Amino acid sequence: MFEALADRLEAVFKTLRGKGRLSEADIDATLREIRLALLEADVALPVVRDFLSGVRERARSAELSRALNPAQQVISIVNEELIRILGGQARRLRFAKNPPSVILLAGLQGSGKTTVAAKLGRWLAKQGHTPVLVAADLQRPNAVEQLQVLGARAEVPVFAPEPGSGVGDPVDVARRGVEFARRRLHDIVVIDTAGRLGVDEDMMRQAMEIRDATEPDEILFVVDAMVGQDAVTTARAFLDGVGFDGVILTKLDGDARGGAALSVASVTGKQILFASTGEKLDDFDVFHPERMASRILGMGDVLTLIEQAQAAFDAEQAERAAQRITAGELTLDDFLEQMTAVRKMGPIANILGMLPGMGQFKDAIAHIDDRDLDRVTAIIRSMTPEERADPKILNGSRRARIARGSGTTVAEVNSLVERFFEARKMMKQFAGMGIPGMRRTTKA
Ligand code: GDP
C-alpha cells in the first residue's frame, strides 16, 4: 500500500532538490503535484484541501526562507502535515476503572471485524491482560464458529451462544458475555458485532442496543483500507449511528491506493488505534501516524527496525539482570542499564504497560513522568563505579556531591537510594514467588 503515492511524492521532491531557494511559483507547482498525488491515492477531497492549506501556510511562512535545503524543508512540512491528518500522536486504549473494560467492534461485513477481535485479543493477552472475546455476530453464517476457531488459535477464550440454542439475541449474548467476564475475572471484553454489506438501519439499531446494554469503554470502528472513498461515507454513517471512539484499519497489506487510511481519521476526528496488515494473527499492531507518514514519504519504517533491534538486545540484558535480581544482587548499574534501554524504546508508561502483570497498576503507570527518569539517570551517572555497585557506602557528603554533580537536590538523591533499596528487596521477594516473565534461578 502507498507505493504509488510514495513514488509520486518522491518525484515531486526530486524537482525541488538543488534549488537554493523556493519561489512562490515553485511552491504552487509543488502543491499542485502533491494534490494530484493525493487524489490519485483516493484521499477524500476535503482531506486533500485541508492538507494542502496546512502545507501552503507553513511553506510560505518564515521557516522556509531560512532554509538551507528547501527540498528537505518541504519534505519535513509534508511529513508533519501527514502525521496531523493521520491523527497526530498515537492514542492508547482507554480502560475502565473497574474491570472488565468493554471494547465494542463495529463495521461493515467483510471489514475484518471477526479477525480483528481475535488479533486484538491476542495483542491484549501479550500485554498481560486476560481478555475474553464475545461472539455477538449472529447474522453472518459461521461468524460464531469463525471466532471460536480464531480465538482458539489466538489462545484467547471465546464466549458464544450455546450451539443449537437457536438464533439467539445478540444483545443478550453481549450482556451475558460481559457478565461472564466479570464472574471469571477477565479484565477486558472484546465484542464482535454483526455487519452488513452496506450500512442499514437494522444493523445500526442492533449495534446501538448492544452499546446501550454493555456501556463500552471503547467503540472501535473497523474499516477495510482497500475500499477507498466508500470508507469515508461508511465512517460518517457509523459516527452518526452507533458512534465510535477510535478506528482500526484492516488490510493495510493490500495493494490498493490507501486513501481510506489517509482520510478516515481526518474526516471523523477519531484516531486510528490499530492497524491490521495481513491474514496472520500477529499481523496487527498499534497504529503510529508518524511511522505511517515516514513510510509514505519513502523513509522506510526506521523506527520499527530500531525497535526490533532493541527488543533483541533487551532480552539478553534482562536475562542477566533477572539473574542478579533473584540473587538479591541488583546494583545501580543494572538499574541504569535497564532504564537506558527502556528509555530508548519510547514513553515509559507504554513500556511498563506492556510488561506481564502490570495491568493492575495501569492508573499509577499513567502518571509516570519521563522527565523523572532523566533525573534519576543523571543522579546515577554522577556516582562513582564503587557507589553504583554498593550504594550502602553513600554517606552524607557523597550524596551532597552527587546532587551537585547531577543538578538535583540531596532530597532527590536520598529518595532514589531509598527507592532502590526497596525495589531490590521487593524484587527479591517477587523472584521467590516466581512472577510470570521473570526466570527463577536455582540459587536459593
Ligand atoms: P467480518 O465480516 O468483518 O467479521 O470480516 P472477517 O474478519 O471475516 O474478514 C473478512 C476477510 O478479510 C477474511 O477473509 C479475512 O481473512 C480477511 N482479512 C481480515 N483482516 C485482514 C488483513 O489485515 N489483511 C488481509 N489481507 N486480509 C484480512
UniProtKB/TrEMBL annotation:
Residue ranges annotated for the Signal recognition particle SRP54 helical bundle domain, each copy included: 1-86
GO molecular function, one term: 7S RNA binding
Keywords, comma-separated and alphabetical: Cytoplasm, GTP-binding, Hydrolase, Nucleotide-binding, Ribonucleoprotein, RNA-binding, Signal recognition particle
Gene Ontology biological process terms from the UniProt entry: SRP-dependent cotranslational protein targeting to membrane
Coiled coil: none
UniProt binding sites for GTP: 107-114, 192-196, 250-253
Nucleotide-binding recorded as keyword: yes
Keyword Iron-sulfur appears in the UniProt entry: no
Compartments where found: Cytoplasm
Purpose: Involved in targeting and insertion of nascent membrane proteins into the cytoplasmic membrane. Binds to the hydrophobic signal sequence of the ribosome-nascent chain (RNC) as it emerges from the ribosomes. The SRP-RNC complex is then targeted to the cytoplasmic membrane where it interacts with the SRP receptor FtsY.
Name by which UniProt lists this protein: Signal recognition particle protein
